[in-house]
Structure formats: C-alpha cells, structure tokens
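in:
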C-alpha cells in the first residue's frame, strides 16, 4: 500500500472502517480509487475509498437489506457483494475499474477479494460498448456545455440535457428490465416557471415493471440533471482546474473501455499514458486540442467495439458460482 494512503487511512477521519459493525469484520476488498487508482493524483488529490463487503447473514436471510455504505466526508463507498457483482455484470465503469487497480492501491484484500480480481474476465462483455461509451459521451456533452454555458440560452441548455437523457435510453434497455419504445417519453415544452422558456417533460406508461429497476433509471436521470445544474452555476475561470480534470477523466475512460474491448483486460492504472493525462490536468493543452484527442480515442473505442471478441453478455452462471463460493467460504470461516 502507498505510504500516503496508509497514513490517511489510519487517521480518525476513517475510524468508521474500524468501528462500523458491517465494515469492521466483513470487508473483503478495499482500494484507493479515483486519481490514486488511475495514477493521475496530485498533491491535493483525495483518496476515494471503494470496496466490497460480504453482507451479514441477517442481510441475506432476514428482512434487513444492505446494498452499500457511504461516508460523504471522505468520499467512501463500500458495496455489498451482491450489488457489486450486479454492477460489474452490467459493465458499470465505476465498479469494473476497481478490479483493475494496481497493488499499491489495494488497502485490504481477503481470499474473496482475490477471487473477484482473478476472475475479472467473467464480468467483461459487449455491454462495455454501451456503458463506457454512453458514459463518456455524456461526460463530453457536459464538458462542452460547461465551457459554452455563458453563451447558451436556457432553451438550448435544456436541449443538451434532453439529448443526454435520450442517449441513455438504450443503456437503460440493456441494463434494466426492458420496456416498450415510447413507454418513457421525454420532450421539451413550454414552461410555466418564470426563469424557463421551455423545460423537459415526461410521459410514462409502464405496466408490471420492477420498482427497483425504475428507481435506478430515475436515479440515473436525476444525476444527469444535477450534474448539468452544478456546471451551469460554476464560475468558469475559478473552476478551470475541475474542467481540466473532467476532460482528463473523459479521455481516460475511453482508453480503458477501448482496452477492455480489445481483450487487454481492465487497465485502471494508466502507467503508459500517465504523463499525457497529467499534462491535460495541468492545462498544457487547449480545449481545442483536447477535443481532438477525444475524437481520436473515441474512434479507437468505436473500432475496438466493432472488432471485439468479448461475449455479447457475461456468463452469469459462472459469476454466480464465484459469488456462491465467496459466500460459502466466508460464512464457514466465521462459524
């Protein structure tokens, strides 16, 4: 483990790792994610802790449920094993990347955590095309919106949000239970709000649709709207470091997705591109140059998607066997 990470983890800010009943005895995998995980950290970088816990028997067999633990002050998210695996199966970039961090970023790992890392290939499928691709394009639209927001009328800003949400519909169909085209309809119409000319409205016609899938769709939509709102209220000059960091991670995301589609596995720590990515973060390149880089890596990503040998969907049966093995060994070891 990196000495800086080790020192911070031992501070009182992270006492919850040692005191929380769910975490202190159940963590099987804990890593420093974010900039530390990517190798793009600077002196002011936070440690974004991410991990996995084996849910207790009462959460598996009883009425209580556990999906994840969050500590916002330290930006820590620790997933329950079942939720983590389901997110990885859906090719969620934020969770897949945790399996590809290098050894220096690993804070804690048990046999169960090793089993997840050793079997990362089981989670990889052509779902990466949509998850990484859609996420990257959404990030690009938000970045362009942030750079040009002072020149955009409110109506056009609303159109940007609608475009992003519309592009996510295919992603929703892949990740969640399918719904008929037109069941969720988003469109612009005249607004009654005093500071809006037009705003996004929605018509929903879903029958016998899983509630949890719908709440996940709603949550992802909400995140898009919130992100645009935050960008629209920032001071561009003051927030330039954030925008450059945003651009760096957009390009890194395309690199990672490309590599997965090319069969290279999950390369979270970008050692070969580290200097290039840090130069973007430090403002060496103009945004016109950055967008040229984005076009280049987007093309590489698309070519990799066309020629990939990854399966259309992951082998859920084998993944389920891995999950069962982790649960079985863990509960046997604590009895």
């Amino acid at each position: 483990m990196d000495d800086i990470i080790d020192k911070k983890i031992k501070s009182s800010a992270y006492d919850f790792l040692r005191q929380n009943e769910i975490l202190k005895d159940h963590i099987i995998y804990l890593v420093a994610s974010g900039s530390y995980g990517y190798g793009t950290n600077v002196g002011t970088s936070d440690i974004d802790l991410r991990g996995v816990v084996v849910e207790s028997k009462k959460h598996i067999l009883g009425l209580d449920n556990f999906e994840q633990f969050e500590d916002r002050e330290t930006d820590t998210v620790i997933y329950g094993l079942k939720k983590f695996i389901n997110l990885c199966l859906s090719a969620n970039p934020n969770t897949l990347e945790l399996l590809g961090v290098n050894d220096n970023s690993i804070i804690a790992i048990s046999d169960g955590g090793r089993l997840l890392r050793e079997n990362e290939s089981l989670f990889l499928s052509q779902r990466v095309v949509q998850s990484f691709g859609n996420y990257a394009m959404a990030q690009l639209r938000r970045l362009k919106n942030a750079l040009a927001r002072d020149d955009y009328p409110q109506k056009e800003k609303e159109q940007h949000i609608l475009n992003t949400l519309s592009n996510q519909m295919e992603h929703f169909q892949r990740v969640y239970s399918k719904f008929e085209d037109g069941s969720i309809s988003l469109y612009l119409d005249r607004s009654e709000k005093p500071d809006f000319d037009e705003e996004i409205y929605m018509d929903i016609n879903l029958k016998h649709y899983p509630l949890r899938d719908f709440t996940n769709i709603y949550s992802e939509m909400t995140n898009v709207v919130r992100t645009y709102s935050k960008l629209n209220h920032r001071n561009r000059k003051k927030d330039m470091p954030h925008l450059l960091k945003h651009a760096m991670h957009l390009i890194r995301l395309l690199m990672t997705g490309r590599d997965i589609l090319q069969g290279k596995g999950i390369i979270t720590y970008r050692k070969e591109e580290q200097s290039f990515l840090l130069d973007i973060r430090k403002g060496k390149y103009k945004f016109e140059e950055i967008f040229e880089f984005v076009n280049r890596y987007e093309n590489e990503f698309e070519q990799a998607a066309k020629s990939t040998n990854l399966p259309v969907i992951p082998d859920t049966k084998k993944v389920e066997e891995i999950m069962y093995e982790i649960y079985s060994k863990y509960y046997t070891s604590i009895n």
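note: The mean pLDDT is 87.
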